[in-house]
């Protein structure tokens, strides 16, 4: 197994499938802390929402990371053992698949509230063969915020549901100096507290530069989450 694409200190996303036949999973942040041999590595105890996850021996995992070329890669692994690495709880995992580039549909969704605005777009204006966005100079924009975002989709807080298939032009403020724009198609509207809805969408158009900016933003947020919970020695 080739571990040349892995480096000590690499930030990781760990997905633990609910069952071997299920598409659903729990996602955690971690970090590569040692490369033992060409098929075994050691990772810091995964963390989510401030809580560390103990990994049972034999547990199946999917491990995601960004390489030096900013490609989003993943591999399958099995938990081999547990040990202490200084002050850090560590787990040795055995890599059981090739390291492959992630298809965008597999991307991790970051739970975060980002300020954004959106406009409903006439589907007839969308040309899937063109990289250009439709002319929306006369569109009416509405302010809202995200519930989560990934490299292939987004969910918004809205006051009313939207019909599946509706297309939105969305401008998202990732931070003070960075914005991205996407075209997204509604997949579902879920009623939340009171008369509020969470509307889930997948991207149908995003420029490559904006996708790179978004991917870096998501990983930066995960690094912050992990760093805040790691001992100072490993920050």
Provide a brief overview of the structure.
Helix content is 9%, strand content 48%. It contains one helix and 16 strands.
Overview of the molecule:
- The chain has 235 residues and is mainly beta.
- It is 9% helix and 48% strand.
- The longest helix has 20 residues, at 208-227.
- It starts with 10 loop residues before the first strand and ends in an 8-residue tail after the last helix.
- The relative contact order is 0.15.
Number of helices: 1
Chain-averaged pLDDT: 82
The dominant shape is elongated
Portion in beta strands: over 45%
Highest CATH level, the class of the largest domain: Mainly Beta
At CATH level 2, the architecture of the largest domain is Beta Barrel
Uncertain segments of ≥5 residues (pLDDT<50)?
Answer: 230-235
How do the strands of the widest beta sheet line up side by side? 1-2-3-8-7-6
Number of strands: 16
Secondary-structure content class: mainly beta
Specify the helix fraction band: under 10%
Largest sheet: 6 strands, antiparallel, barrel
Rg measurement, Å: 20 Å
What sequence of helices (H) and strands (E) makes up the elements?
EEEEEEEEEEEEEEEEH
Number of domains: 2
CATH superfamily of the largest domain: predicted glycosyltransferase like domains
Question: Distance between the terminal alpha carbons, to the nearest Å?
Answer: 28 Å
Within the CATH hierarchy, at the fold level, what is the topology of the largest domain?
Thrombin, subunit H
Name its key features.
Thrombin, subunit H; 235 residues; T3SS_YcgR_PilZN; elongated; Pnp Oxidase, Chain A; PilZ_domain; Flagellar brake protein; disordered C terminus; 1 helix; mainly beta; flagellum; 2 domains; cyclic-di-GMP binding; six-stranded antiparallel barrel
